[in-house]
Amino acid sequence: MTGTQKNNKKESLIRKKSHRNRHGNRCFSLTRFFSGQNFLDFPGPSKSSATYQKLASSHASRNGKKPRKISLFSSNSSPSCFRGSRVSGPKSWKRIEDMEKIRSDIDELSVGCRNSSAAAKACQQFRRCLIEMVAEEKNVDDLVDLEEFLYCYRNLRSPVYRELIGRFYVEICVEVFRPPSLAAAAAAAATATATPTQEKGSNAVGKDVAIAPFIPAEEAGNVGADAFGKGGQESTVSITVVGASGDLAKKKIFPALFALYYEDCLPKHFTIYGYARSKMTDAELRKIISGTLTCRIDKRENCEDKMQEFLQRCFYHSGQYNLEDNFIELDKKLKEHEAGKVANRLFYLSIPPNVFVDVARCASRSSSSANGWTRVIVEKPFGRDSESSAELTRGLKQYLTEEQIYRIDHYLGKELVENLSVLRFSNLVFEPLWSRQYIRNVQLNFSEDFGTEGRGGYFDSYGIIRDIMQNHLLQILALFAMETPVSLDAEDIRNEKVKVLRSMRPLQLENVIIGQYKSHVKGGVTYPGYTDDKTVPKNSLTPTFAAAALFIDNARWDGVPFLMKAGKALHNRRAEIRVQFRHVPGNLYKRNFGTDLDRATNELVIRVQPDEAIYLKINNKIPGLGMRLDRSNLNLHYAARYSREIPDAYERLLLDAIEGERRLFIRSDELDAAWALFTPLLKELESKKIAPELYPYGSRGPVGAHYLAAKYNVRWGDTSGDPQQ
After folding, report:
1. If both were cysteines, with which of 18, 327, 402, 705 could 362 make a disulfide (CB 3.0 to 4.6 Å apart)?
2. Are 163 and 288 found together in one domain?
3. Number of other residues whose CB lies within 10 A of the CB of residue 493
4. Rounded to a whole number, what is the distance in angstroms from the first to the last CA of the chain?
5. pLDDT for 621
6. What is the crossing angle of helices 140-154 and 159-172, to 10°?
7. Which ranges are annotated Low complexity under compositional bias (predicted)?
8. In a domain, 639, yes or no
9. 116 phi/psi in degrees, rounded to 5
10. Is residue 81 part of a domain?
11. ∠ CA(428), CA(432), CA(433), 5° rounding?
C-alpha cells in the first residue's frame, strides 16, 4: 500500500469518526432484520424504511463485491438504556494499517460475549466475522460501524437486551457480510433453532427465515439472564444454597435472592434449594426464611404477594456434605423443575472451608448440569495462610475449572467500593492527582462498635487480620491503587489488581500493631472483654484489633504509606477510605493555620458504610471583613442525593454470578498474591506468641496505633474530631 493510499484511508476514517462523534450520544437503534414488528421496546424498520433499503441493497450486491456501507444508527429512537450515553470506541482504530492492533481491539470489545451464556455463542461468531473481514481487508467503514455496535453492547447491563442482541449479532454478520466460513454454519443454526413457537418471516430475497418471538418490554424483567439456552431452547437457573440452616444463609443469601426476585432480576424460570444436614421440610425452611425477607422501601406494593410467590420457589433437601448419594437425590429433584429446559446450576457454599472440597466433589460428579453451566460460589475464608489456601485451590480444581469457581468477598459488592473506579477513571479532576506526587498517605479504616458476644469460637481461630485485613481491606487497596485496566473486562481488571498486590512489600512485624479489647464500664454498664466470652479460651492471644503500614514498590506509589486499621469493640461502626493530599508548596495562607499545617491538608473521604458518602475537605474563607479560614466539606451524601435504597452487596454479587460476570470475584493468583503479603507476619505472630496490647471496650483502639501512624508522619483521619466522623 502506497503512502498516498494510506493517507486517503486515514482521512476517510477521520471523516467517519467526526460523523460518529457528532451523533455519538444517540448510539443506535437495534432492529430486527426484514421484519415490520418491534425488536425490543422501540420502533423497528418497515420495508419502506431507509434502514431496510440499505440492508436489502447490501444483501443483494454481495456476490463478488465488497459489502456496501451500512449504518446501525437511528436519528429518532434508541433504547432507554442508551439515552444520554456517548459512544466513542477505542482511539486505536485510527491506525487502520495496523491489522494486528485491530484484531486485539476486537478481542477487547468482545467482553460482552462472556456476560450471558445464551448469547455467548452468537457473540463469538460475530467476533469471528469481524476478524475474517479484517483478514479479507473489507471496507474499514463497515468495521467502524460494527465496532461501534459492539461497544454499545459491552456497556449494556440488562440480561434481556444482551440475550436478544446476542442473536442479532449473527444476523448482521450473515445477512450483510456473510463470510464464507459462517454462511453454512448460520444456515444450519437457523434450521436448528426453528421451533413451533417461532414465527416465520421473510428476508430481502424472499426466503423464509426463523425469527425469535418478540418479548414485550413489560415481560423483559421476568426473562432475566440466560432466558434461552442452546438452539433457542428455554433455560432455567437452579440455585442451591449449601448450608441453608446457617446464619449467613438466613440473614444474607435468601434475603438477597428475594430482593433480586422483587426487582425482576432473576430469570423467568428459577428454583431455589436449601441443602444442609439438618432435617427439615420445605414448609419449615419457608417459615424460617420468611421472617428475614423485606421489600424495598420505594416499592412496597404487592410485597406480601411477592413473598409468597418467592417462597413457593424455595425447597429443601437434607443430606451430608460428603455423600454423593445425597447429591444424586438432589439432582433428581432439580431435574423435576428443569424438565425440557437447558439447566443452569449455581451452588452457594455457605459452609466451613474444611468441607468445600467434599461438596465440590459431590456436586461436580452428581449434581452438575449436563446441558448448561455449573458455577460454585465459595464464601471466605479461603484458607488460613498461603499453604492452606493453595491446598484448598488445588482441591477445588480437581473437580471444577477456574471459570466455575466464584470466590466471593462481599465488600467488593458494596456500592462505594464499586464506585471507586468510576470516581477515579471517569473524573479528570482526580486521575492526575492519583499518585505519589500529590497523595501523602492513604488510610483504610474498618471499625465495629460490638465484640464477638458469644460468637468468638469461629473468630478466635482466625483473628482480625485474616478476617478483615487480608481480604476486605486489601481488595479495596488493590482497586484503589491499580493502574488503568485495558477495559472493564473482568480479566483486565483482575490482571491490574494482581500487579499491584505483587508490587507490595510483605508485611514486617515492626510495621504492625495488634490489640485485644478488655472489659470496660461506661454509663453504669459493664461491657465484657474478649476473653470474657465463654466461646473464647481464657489465655487467647488472638488480636481483635490490628493496624499496619503497607508500601507499594512501583513508580506511581513509591514511598506512599497505605495505613490499614481494623478492630472490634471500638467507638463507632464505620468503613472508609481516606486520601490525605500533600501540603500546598509555599502556601500563602500557612500563617492562618498556625504551626499545624495538617489542618490545611485536603482530604478525600469515601465512606463505605454506614451512611454512604463521598466528601472532599477544602480550605475556604469565612465570610466577613477579616481573613479567617475554615475547613469545609464538599459533600455527596447518597441518602440525600438518591432516593433509591442502595442494594445489599450480596444482591449485586449473586446477580453477577448468575450472569457470569466475574469482575467482582477473586481469581486464584490474586488470592495467592494476597496471602503472600500476610503469611510471614501471621507465622511470626503465632510462633513468637506476641501478646496484643489491651484497649478498653468502646475506645479508639490501642495507643500503639497512633505511634505507628506518627512513625510515618501521619495522623489518623478518623480521630481528628471532625463532625463528619
Report:
1. 327
2. no
3. 20
4. 65
5. 82
6. 160
7. 71-85
8. no
9. -145, 120
10. yes
11. 115
Contact indicator for 649, 301 with CB cutoff of 8 Å: no
Beta bridge partners of 378: 349, 407
Q: Whole-structure pTM over 0.70, yes or no? A: no
Cα dist. 232→40, 75, 123, 518, 592 in Å? 17, 32, 14, 62, 71
pLDDT digits (tens, 9 = 90+) for 232-265: 467 889 999 999 988 899 889 999 999 888 888 8
Q: Write the CA distances from 626 to 586, 588, 592, 623, integer angstroms.
A: 22, 16, 11, 8
**CA of 163: how far to CAs of 212, 343, 665, in Å?**
11, 16, 23
Backbone angles phi, psi at 236, to 5 degrees: -135, 155
Do 70 and 180 lie in one domain? The reply is yes
| Residue in the structure block whose three cell numbers are 466475574 | 662
Query: Are 269 and 313 a contacting pair, CB within 8 Å?
Result: no
And the C-alpha cell for 428? 479528570
Residue 366 resides in a domain: yes
User: From CA 235, how far away is CA 233, in angstroms rounded?
Assistant: 6
Given this model, what pLDDT does residue 724 score?
A: 52
Helix (H, G, I), strand (E, B) or coil at 5: helix
Output the nine-digit C-alpha cell for 276: 444442609
Q: How many CB atoms lie within 10 A of CB 635?
A: 14
CA–CA gap between residue 241 and residue 691 (Å, rounded): 39
Q: What are the start-end ranges of the H helices in 566-648? A: 638-641
For residue 686, give the CATH number of its domain: 3.30.360.10
Closest CA to 435 of 586, 582, 603: 582
Of 269, 317, 410, 472, which is the active-site residue? 472
Q: Is 540 part of any domain?
A: yes
> Is 410 among the residues known to form the active site?
no
- 302/435 same-domain check: no
Q: What share of the chain is helix, strand, coil (3-state, %, to 5)?
A: 45, 15, 40
What would the pLDDT profile of 335-368 be if each residue is shown by its tens digit?
Answer: 888 887 888 999 999 988 889 999 999 999 998 8
Domain ends where: 190, 219, 248? 219
Peptide bond into 353 cis (omega under 30): no
447 and 366 in a single domain? The answer is no
Domain end marker among 327, 361, 379 = 379
Cα 567 from Cα 442, distance rounded (Å): 18
Q: How many domains does the chain have?
A: 3
Cα(303)–Cα(197) distance, integer angstroms: 33
On the question of pLDDT at 632 being above 70, the answer is yes
Both 250 and 320 in one domain: the answer is: yes
Report residue 64's pLDDT band, with 50, 70 and 90 as the boundaries.
Answer: very low
Q: What is the DSSP string of 279-339?
A: ---HHHHHHHHHTT----TT--TTHHHHHHHHHTTEEEEE--TT-HHHHHHHHHHHHHHHT
Going from the C-alpha of 61 to that of each of 56, 68, 73, 186, 406, the distances in angstroms are 9, 8, 21, 19, 48
Output the domain CATH number for residue 325.
3.40.50.720
Task: Tell me the average pLDDT across 663-671.
Answer: 91
Structural domain for 288, as ranges: 234-379
Same domain, 95 and 167: yes
Note whether 140 and 275 are same-domain residues.
no
Instruction: Please give the distance of CA 365 from its chain centroid, rounded to a whole number.
Output: 29
Mind listing the pLDDT tens digit for each residue in 467-476? 999 999 999 9
Is residue 163 helix, strand or coil?
helix
